[in-house]
Amino acid sequence: MSETASSIWIRGQPFGKDRFFVIAGPCVLESEDLALRVASSVARMCRELDIPYIFKSSYDKANRTSVESYRGPGLEKGLKILERVRSQVGVPVITDVHAVQEAAAAARVVDVLQIPAFLARQTDLVVAAAKTGKPINLKKAQFLAPWDMFHVVRKAESVGNRRIFITERGTCFGYNALVVDMRSVSLLSRSPYPLVFDATHSVQIPGGQGTASGGERQYVESLARAAVAAGADGLFMEVHEDPDRALCDGPNSVPLNEVFAILTALKDLYETTRKHPIRLQNEPVLRTA
């Protein structure tokens, strides 16, 4: 089946605007064993629920609060782990890229390249990722209005790549706080590209622990439910076996043993709300070139 802007096929599965999908995994690669266990567990849940799934984890997290913060195993070792997850578990994988020179190397291994929210306005990085021809996930910066994502999308489209996901992940609100404006979800869902809601970064408290970010994972499911009802097509969720011991973003990560119940509820909500589409008039829409 051919691809359209609203339906991106990855390893034989559609990720688009007519079927709920999930991007999930540990924030950063801690070990190969942990990555394989989480990927296998979430993949099994998604197969049971018939939900397309992309495993997410980063080989490097350059955007950290402190210089002492754990960043990951690095490009070479990290890509080997992601390659093992991809081949052994049989699921697509996605990872952040933070520098232009990393895009081509990462694209040789992973199925989707992700532009971190803090780097959404880095033109050279967005273009380099788009030039690989891989699907790209453009995370909306905390400091951008939803309609400003049009310019980020245009940078990717300028080199012919329309295999684009857009991710909403909350907006800066004062110091050490994020807020999710569901109007943003509704607006971005009107674009031709699949909209993802990042439910775990949206409950993050940036720098809230002094040398690390805090978070309020108890609100992940509530915000995810609201976002799906408002028009989100997919869910982005950081998952860990033991979030309190995670080396990155533990306070806003979801325990692995809670994932199935959350996904069950969200899929049911997605299917129910899509039977009764939201009717909006005179709302700006992100358009393809």
Automatic annotation (TrEMBL):
Pfam families: DAHP_synth_1 (PF00793). Keywords: Cytoplasm, Lipopolysaccharide biosynthesis, Transferase. GO terms for cellular component: cytoplasm. Pathway: Bacterial outer membrane biogenesis; lipopolysaccharide biosynthesis; Carbohydrate biosynthesis; 3-deoxy-D-manno-octulosonate biosynthesis; 3-deoxy-D-manno-octulosonate from D-ribulose 5-phosphate: step 2/3. Its EC number is 2.5.1.55. InterPro entries: Aldolase_TIM, DAHP1/KDSA, KDO8P_synthase. GO terms for biological process: keto-3-deoxy-D-manno-octulosonic acid biosynthetic process. It is an enzyme of class 2 (transferase). GO terms for molecular function: 3-deoxy-8-phosphooctulonate synthase activity. HAMAP family: KDO8P_synth. PANTHER family: PHOSPHO-2-DEHYDRO-3-DEOXYHEPTONATE ALDOLASE (PTHR21057). Belongs to the KdsA family. This is 2-dehydro-3-deoxyphosphooctonate aldolase. It comes from Desulfosoma caldarium.
